[in-house]
Structure formats: C-alpha cells, structure tokens
Amino acid sequence: MTQPLSDHLAQHTGPDWLTAKRKQSFDLFDTLEVPHSGVEAWKYTQVVIDFGKLNPHPKREAVHDVSALPKSVQERLSSTDVGAFLVLDGPDVVYRTELPAELTEKGVIFTDLKSALEQYPDKVQQYLYSVVPAEVPDDTTIAAPGTTPSKSPDPSEGKFSAMAAALWTNGAFVYVPRGVEVALPLGSFRVMSEAGTFTATRTLVVAEENARVTFIDEQDSEDLPGTYAIGAVELVVKDGAQLRYVSIQNWGKGVTHIQRQRGDVGKDAVLNSLVVTMGGTLSRTEMQSYLRGQGSDSEMLALYFANEDQHFDHYTLQHHAAANAHSDLLYKGVSDDRSVGVFSGMIKVDLGAQKTDAYQKHRTLMLSSEAQNFSVPQLEINANDVRCSHGSTTGPVDQEQLFFLKSRGIREEQAEKMLVTAFLEDVLGRVPLQSVVKYIEGIIAKKVGAA
Amino acid sequence: MTINPEVKDISTDYEYGWSNPEKYAFKAPRGLSREVVEMISKAKDEPQWMLDFRLKALDIFYSKPMPTWGADLSGLNLDEIYYYIKPEGMNARSWDDVPDDVKKTFERLGIPEAERAALAGVGAQYESEMVYHNLKEEWEKLGVVFLSIEDGLRQYPDLFREHFATIVPPEDNKFAAVNSAVWSGGSFVYVPKGVKVDIPLQTYFRINAESSGQFERTLIIIDEGAQAHYIEGCTAPAYNSDSFHSGVIEIVVKEGARFRYSTIQNWSHNVYNLVTQRAAVYGNGVMEWVDGNLGSKVTMKYPACYLLEDGARGEILSIAMAGRGQHQDAGGKIVHFAPNTSGSIVSKSISKDSGRSSYRGLVKIYEGARNAKTNVECDALLLDEEARTDTYPYIEIEEKTARVGHEATVSKINDEQILYLQSRGLTGDQAAGLIVRGFIEPIAKELPLEYAVELNRLIELEMEGSVG
Question: CB-CB: which of A143, A144, A384 is closest to B383?
C-alpha cells in the first residue's frame, strides 16, 4: 500500500457509504499501474509520479475578504461576470460568494461538495460517482452479435480516476431543479500554492430535466515544480436540459494536470463543452460525452497552445448510445518550441444508434520543428444509417496569409502572431460567454506574445 | 484471370473452398520449436548464417507478447499449426513438371492461362514451397530475375544478403519474427537499372492442408530507374479449423525507380492473415501498394512506404470487404524520413452482415523531413444495420513544414440510388452491386483489366442477397 496516501485516506470523514466508496477506490488505485506506452489511450503520454513521496497540498485558512486572496485570483475575479463562485486553494474552499436569493428560492444549489454532503446527502449520494466512477468507464461499443469485439479499455486507464475517487478533498456542487434556468454562469476558481504536493478535487453538476446552467471551472497558479492536480468532473444532463461546461487550465510551470471530465446526456439534452489548455507542464484532459438519450446533442470545443517543454494530451469521446443524437467536435492546437501535443479522439456509435450525426475535427499549427504533434482521430461505427466523419490537419502557418500581411508592412514575427491568434480565437466565436472569452483571449495574447 | 464457370455463390460457399487429398514429401509436426526451425533450414540446405538468423528470430518470437491492439487473435492457436509442409515436386519451370493434382489446382484457379495471356512471369506456391516459377525469356534476357526466394538465396547470395531482413527485421513485430524463423517460399525479384517490365509478374499462393501455416518471404529489388508491377493472389480451402498465413514482403525501390505491388487477398474465411509488407523508397522513387482484402477470417495488414531520400513518393490504395465473421484490419503506413517526400493513402471499405472493416494507419514525419506532404482519405460503406466499421489513424508530426491531412467518412447505400436503379429495371442486388463497384472504382481502375474484372465479380458475389 502506498503509505502517505493511505494515511491521507484515513483522514477523510463522511457518511459510511462514502467511506466505503473511498476505501474501495483506493484499493483499486493501489492495484493499478500508471498507464504505460503500451496502453493505447496513453500511447504518447507517460506520467512520472512517485506515489510514495506524494504529500497532500496543505489546507489554507478561509478568508472573508477578496483582498486576502492571491493576487492572480483577485485580478481574475475583478473581470468575471459569474453569478456566484467558489475559490479553492489546494484542497479546500477559501472563499465563496452566495447565489442570488431568487435562485436559491427556486431550489438551485451551489455549494462545495463537502457542505453538500451534510446539507443534501441524498442528492450527493444519488449522483456522485455516477458519471465518473473510480474505474475507467467501459465505453466498449455495442456491436451486432458475431462481430469481432472491440478491445476493452485497459484497467490502468482508471489509475488516476481511482485516485481522485478515493482522495478527493472538495470541489463544486451545482444542482439545478427541473425547468429552472440559471442565466449567469457559476464558477469555481482553483489555485494551488505549495510546490511538491498534490490535490485531488471533484466537481459535480446536475441539471435536472429542462434545466439550464453554465459552469466555469478555472485553474490558475504560480509556477509550482513537482505538483499534481488530479481531478474528476461529473456532468449530469437530464432529459431536455442544457449544460455548458468550460474548463480553463492555466496552471503554472511544474504542474501535472490529470482530469477526466464526462457528461451523461439525456434525451433531447444538450452538453456544450469548451476545454482550454495553456498552463502546467504535463496536462491530460479527457472530455467525454456519453449520449445516452435519443436526440441528445454535444458540442465539444477546445483550444491549446503548447510551448517550451509543455506536454498537452487531449483525449475525447463522443459515444452515441442512442439514435438521432448529434455531436460536433472542434479542437485546435498550436505546438511551439519543444512541446508535445497529443489529440486522440473517438467517435463511437452503438448498434441501433441510427441517424447519428457525428463530426470531429482536429487542427494543429506547427511553429517549431522541435515540437511534436500526435493526432489520432478515431471512429468505431456499428450502425449504418449514420453521418460520421472526421478530419485532422497539421501544417505550418499559411504562407500566403503570411505573405499578404507582410506585404501590408507587418513584420513577419508580428504577422505570425496575428495568424496564430486568429487560428485559436476561431473556436471562441462559438462560445456565447463574453467575459470568459475575453479572459481566454487575454491568456492567448500573453502566450502568443511570449512565443 | 479467367472466371471459373462453376462458381456460384461465395457468401455461403467460398468458391475456392475445395481441397486436394494431402500428398506431401514432408510435413513437420504441429507447433513451433527449435527442431522445426532446424528441420526447415536443413531441408533447404541453407548456409549457416540463415540458420542462425532463423534461430535468433525464434527467440524474438518467443519474447514478444501478442499485440494488445488490432484484431481479436484469441482464436489463433499457434501450437496447432503445421509450420512446414513440403509438397511433392518442387519449383518446376514448366507446368508439365508440376504434380498432377497441384497442377489441376492452379488450372482451376486459371493461373497457366493468365500466364500465357498477360503476364511476364508466374510463381505458384503450394503450402510451404514454390512449385512453379517461370519468367518469359524476353525479360530474362534483359537481366530481370524472378525466382523462388530459396533460389534467390542460392543464386544471388550477395544481393540477397545485402537486403534480406534489412527492411523488415525480425524485431519489427511478433509475426515478422515467426516468419523470419520459419519462412519458406515466396519470390525473389531483381529488375536491373533502367529496365521497364511493362506487364505484370505474378505469384499465386495456395494453402491446401488443414491447420497449415504459410510463411512466404518475398524480396524485391527495383534498381535505379527501373519499373515493374507485381501481383499476388491467394486462396485456401474452407476447413473448420483455422489456418495461419504470415508473410513478410520486403521491397527496395532505388533512385528514380517505380514499383507497384498489387494484392487480391481472397483467403477462405478460416485463415488468419497477418502480414508485414514494407518498401524502402530512395530518391524520387515511387512505390505503390494496391491492397485488396476480401477473404480471410482476420487480416492485419498495413503496407508501408518508408520514404528515405529526397523526392520519394509512396501511394497506398486499400480496399477491404468484410462479411459475416470477418475482420479486415487493414490500412497503410507512410513514414517520411527525408525532405520533399510525399504520400497518399486512399482506403475504401465495405462491411456487411456483422462483418467488421477497420482502417488502421500511420503517417509519420520525422524532424528534418522538410516540406513533406501526405493526405489520407478513408471512406467506409455500411450495407446493413449490423455492419461495422472503424478508423484508427495515427498522425505523428515532428516537423514544422509538414502538411498532413486526414479525412474519413462513413455512409450507407443510398436508398434513393437503389430505387432509381430499380426503376430502370435492375434488381436490388444488381443495383447495390453497381453502387459498390462505383464506390471502389478509384481503386479497381488501378488494377490490370483482368484483375479489376475479378475484383468486381468477387464483390458482386458477396453482394448477393444483400438488398431485398
């Protein structure tokens, strides 16, 4: 058994079902290996981690005034338009704002998971682990009898989700009752402030039937060598509901970020996701849409810019388990310096999921010959009356566009930056969240400028 | 190739499913062992270095795990296979010298007739050995070499050793290792500088015995500025127990040379077909793979072009058709090592009746391979609700100036098209067949006419009863 971590496990309190679940998850975690390069889903990303030396991020005192928060958080909060937010420093909440009373009156819940366990134990028990369990979800496609089966996932793909399931300390909990629409986004701002530690967090968002909500999950820190952020995000989108989820990863250098984000999408429900990856040294973000209900819909967007020695791995899944569902994925990335970019995306269509309409597009811009980019766009299709296509392109900055800008008197370096910015911001045109888009544009500008 | 008039329906009865009684000069015991490897080497009276090579490859085979990706190989029992079966009569230059039942086999397959009509040379392999190999005199005079691989080793030891196992070393993968240990049969081809062989060479592979393995090894060297086209075809009887075919094809395309390798794989539906095919392409050389996979139970085959010098080009046309119980895991690899290299992969697959076709491919561009370009296009056609298709492309880029595109689409047969054709008096089957032929036309047109006809006919047979 991994000693410091099992000590850590023992410190968690909570209801019996949760303690049992944590214990069970930890046992699974303990038996699994870190996925090696022979595991297809982790072919291009190896995580070096010594669990024996891993210490939990220390708990920080809660503050009652924004001015006591880290400066970067203050700056960020000054320009956000979220309706309510949590700030987590390391393992726990250090600051929060409350929901407007009118939403509370309608039954909307926005709090942290630990508080929710005490105040809404039934709701938490009902949904926690239902979308992102400890083990790797078995998305093996349902095929016709007699068809050569697909390979099942490798159990080691559950290594980090088991860790997150066992050791999570806190995270946001959102619950929107049937038919309620929450106009302003809700958000959590996660920071870390101690190098050489790890945090494990868990986010649970539940949109009941025909409810509507946006949740923004931001991560930001100073440079923190040898630090790990392990996360799980569970998105429950019931029939007819609409959920928009935005994840912006802007950790400082030295951080390893591993997060599985998964949505369970009901009949005629819509899940929009946007993944932005800019920070950290090694980042693995999984975004999975499980289209369970007929007529469900998922839009999956992402942009990333990897430079210096950054290694970004994006793993996506559009799993069409029901007929008439629609999914549309666009991931755009830039690879500069000695960075490594990985995109592996999968469209799965189960037997009987007729009239599926699924699209997947990955585009990469290469700015350096020392950079590497790996793209694996995949399809597994078990229904015939479908529209499924995918495309992946990799190339340098368009030379004609560059030439045009230069002919207008713009220096080559500047022109390239303009084209890179335009390439990435293209994705943002599809995100109707002004303030967040502005913030992301700011991060892009900073990063492109430094490139 | 002529069309066998006895043929009716291969969706239920595979047309090449008959077998001859077993009459063999030699049959090794089942399973793989050091003794079997030594036996094969001794039977071929090989130099010591080849025996050493085989034994080393055997160790590599034992040390490598089965692949964790790709098709399901759990039904392949490697201990049940006969790794070496030597037919009676060996490597004749005239069909008259080929034993009667073997000759009849190839006559039924239309080989001697095709040779007279349209081919520069023909090889025929029966079980583990080539039983026939002949090159027309006019090509021999120009210095073209077309021999069994064993004769290649005997008659051109230096040229053989210079290239053998340099393109596909036994370490490459588990099945290349097993082939390296027990290889037998296959062709050795050399086309001298500047010689353009304008009609195809062909080798035909036939497995006859139950549970047998066939491990042919082919080495082809196309010298500077030369040109050639090589065709392989394969069939086997339909037994209840599975057979195992694991070939290794190594090709060298030297500067300015051009070579095309076409396969119409039509093994019976009890054959595991796990093949490694790779070409090393030098400056401004062009390598083309035309790979048609219709038969077998499981195929894993990804013809590769390694573009080693400036201006080299690789093209892969892949067509797969999977019916009930079949899994075609096919595709291609283009690897760019040098500047200004270019490639293209076009894959068309058709799945029906719970058959599964998968495209699996690699495009890799190494740092320094400036201005490399490759485009990949995969189209899958699904004929019914149970059919299945997958796409697993790997794109690995280490160079800023690289341009790589990949596109894949999946579609079903368009009902409106069927209806239209039916309104013009075609039956449902004919209409579906026509649409499928249109779908694969970009590939069929790259084959010599006789083969395009054969391919179309096979597909038509597969299509019978697919549209009500």
Answer: A384
Torsion sign across C-alpha atoms A350, A158, A301, A293: positive
Top-confidence residue, A306 or B235 = A306
Helix (H, G, I), strand (E, B) or coil at B87: strand
**Contact state of B404 with A394 under an 8 Å Cβ cutoff:** yes
| Residue from A348, A350, A273, A351 nearest A318 by CA | A348
User: Which residues on chain A are in Cβ contact (under 8 Å) with B390?
Assistant: 150, 378-381
Q: Which of A45, A369, A398, A416 to mutate to test the interface with B (most CBs of B within 10 A)?
A: A369
Compute the half-sphere exposure of residue B207: CA atoms within 13 Å on the CB side of its CA.
36
Residue B348 CB neighbour total at 10 angstroms:
24
| Nearest Cα residue to A170 out of A209, A217, A204 | A204
Q: How far is A337 from chain B (nearest CA, A)?
A: 10
Q: Per the domain annotation, does B446 fall within a domain?
A: no
What residues of chain A lie within 8 A of the CB of B368, using their CB? Answer: 369
Are B412 and A385 within 8 A, CB to CB? yes
Query: How many domains, in total, are found in chain B?
Result: 1
- Calculate ∠ Cα B167-B168-B173, nearest 5°: 155
Question: Torsion over CA of A21, A25, A26 and A30, rounded to 10 degrees?
Answer: 160
**What is the per-residue DSSP string for A278-312?**
--SSEEEEEEEEEE-STT-EEEEEEEEEE-TT-EE
- ipTM of this predicted complex? 0.89
Q: What is the pLDDT of residue B87?
A: 85
pTM listed for this prediction: 0.91
Q: Is residue B447 part of a domain?
A: no
Q: Say whether B426 sits in a helix, a strand or coil.
A: coil
Dihedrals phi, psi of A311, to nearest 5 degrees: -130, 110
CA A287 to CA A297: how far, in whole Å?
14
Contact check, Cβ <8 Å, B395/A375: yes
Q: Where are the domains of chain A?
A: 3-397
Whether B465 is in a domain gets the answer no
CB–CB of A194/A225 below 8 Å?
A: no
Q: What is the DSSP string of B304-345?
A: EEEE-STT-EEEEEEEEEE-TT-EEEEEEEEEE-STT-EEEE
Q: Are the C-beta atoms of residues B100 and B88 closer than 8 Å to each other?
A: no
Bridge partners of residue A390, in order along the sequence: A360, B408
The residue segments making up the domain with residue B239 are 24-409
Q: At what angle do helices B174-182 and B34-43 cross, to 10 degrees?
A: 50
Query: CA of A240, closest CA in chain B: separation in Å?
Result: 28
- Provide block-wise average pLDDT over 10 residues at a time, chain B (468 residues): 35 69 83 94 95 97 90 90 84 81 80 80 86 88 94 96 97 96 95 94 86 93 97 80 93 98 89 96 97 93 98 96 93 98 96 92 96 96 91 96 94 88 90 86 79 74 62
Q: What pLDDT does residue B389 have?
A: 95
How is A352-419 classified by DSSP, letter by letter? T-TT-EEEEEEEEEE--TT-EEEEEEEEEE--SS-EEEEEEEEE-S-HHHHHHHHHTT--HHHHHHHH
CA distance, residue A361 to nearest chain B CA (Å): 9
What residues have CB less than 8 Å from B120, skipping those under 6 apart? B135, B136, B139, B144, B146, B197, B199, B200, B201
Nearest Cα of chain B lies from the Cα of A234 at a distance, in angstroms, of 28
Q: Which residue in this structure is represented by tokens 């230069």?
A: A406
Check residue A201 and give its pLDDT: 97
Within a domain: residue B270? yes
A374 contact residues in B (CB cutoff 8 A): 394-397
